[in-house]
């Protein structure tokens, strides 16, 4: 964007609209960040329920502890398909870790009954033992789950 030969030269807004996807919240009707635009095609091709498109302000974050210091600004989520911290939010509905995001087409088509139980490793691999890598109690794999404040969680690991 800083070189004249770049198609987005001095036009960061157009670049952002090309690169990122925004969807309308089913509850409030406001646009919110739904992931990268390369994920948009998969959303368009899927059999998704529009009622699942809920922005952060309207989402039911049952189980989330609102941080007294940071609010919900640094809220982290569990990957929907394994026991890892999510780093992607796609389709306006789904949190993924990097490994699961790279395998999203297979994972999104898996029936819930075929998903591993906790402890689940990246790419929905069943891990041995009973200890969750996240060291918390959470809903079954396949459900969205907020982990709490990422800043405070990381501070507590030191």
UniProtKB/TrEMBL annotation:
Entry's Gene Ontology BP terms = axon guidance; regulation of synaptic assembly at neuromuscular junction
Superkingdom of the source?
Eukaryota
Protein name in the entry: RING-type domain-containing protein
Q: Which GO terms describe its molecular function?
A: ubiquitin protein ligase activity
Lineage of the source organism?
Eukaryota, Metazoa, Ecdysozoa, Nematoda, Chromadorea
Any one GO CC term of this protein is: plasma membrane
Naturally occurring in which organism (per UniProt)? Onchocerca ochengi (Filarial nematode worm)
């Amino acid at each position: 964007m800083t070189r004249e030969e770049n198609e987005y030269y001095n036009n960061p807004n157009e670049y952002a609209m090309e690169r990122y996807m925004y969807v309308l919240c089913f509850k409030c009707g406001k646009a919110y960040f739904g992931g990268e635009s390369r994920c948009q095609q998969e959303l368009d091709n899927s059999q998704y329920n529009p009622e699942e498109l809920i922005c952060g302000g309207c989402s039911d974050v049952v189980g989330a502890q609102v941080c007294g210091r940071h609010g919900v600004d640094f809220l982290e989520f569990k990957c929907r398909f394994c026991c890892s911290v999510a780093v992607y939010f796609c389709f306006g509905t789904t949190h993924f870790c990097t490994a699961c995001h790279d395998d999203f087409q297979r994972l999104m088509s898996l029936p819930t009954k075929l998903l591993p139980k906790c402890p689940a490793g990246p790419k929905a691999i069943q891990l041995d033992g009973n200890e969750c890598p996240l060291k918390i109690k959470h809903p079954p794999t396949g459900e969205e789950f907020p982990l709490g404040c990422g800043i405070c969680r990381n501070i507590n690991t030191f």
